[in-house]
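[[Per-residue structure]]
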Amino acid sequence: MGLLAAWKESLDILRPHNLKLFMLVTLNTFVQGCKVFMRSVIWWFIPLIIAYNYFFNTVVRDLLYSVGDQAFINYVTIVLPMNGVFFLSSLMIHPSVKRKTIGYFFSWRNLIIGLIYFIYTSFICYTLVFRGPFVPTLLHGIIAMIIWMIYSVLFLFFLLDSDISLAAIGQSMVRAAKMVLYNAPAFLLIMILLLISFIALVSLLPYQLFKEITPVPHCALFLGLISAINNIYIKKLHDNKNLYL
């Protein structure tokens, strides 16, 4: 399949009927993810965040800023937490034949996948973004961040569906890149549409309330974006399995 033909086909999802169905399916995926969070994650995740904040503020912060390397500081304070949110949200959202209890989230297989994901994505972000002048403007930075989020989550999805061998890791990198490349217009437009919807909904909240509950809408946004990426991933694998596998 040619690239332009693939782009044209990817935009079929934006037809009114298809978009309505896609949004309903994405909403259902989002709700199911929230149920998993409330049932199996919240009781250990919130204490973990509290412990992390305490440890960071009392031990890590002074040590981190004493290094004086702004790229490394950005890496630790931005990339690592963001990758953590992506990884946990992806585990909650992505379909699995196993019941999503605490044993699922802390299984050896998922811990190994998480380690691979963190090493790979952190290396790319630190060496190519924070160490290289590849994002000269704010607009380019936003676009790069959206594309990177899509790619890293797709890489994680392919990894979760693999046998996590060395060959599978390399194949997951390539397959995720191919899916981003062949569906770039659909991914970008869907992400922009969801971001606009999020901004519109948040604007309805009183400023003081939004300030007090800031982590909640931001976590909801990440979960919604990953729900959309998951559903496009499943649809494209179903429609063009030979192209991506």
User: Anything to note?
Assistant: Residues 3-244 form one domain. The mean pLDDT is 81. The chain has eleven helices and no strands. The chain has one domain: 3-244.
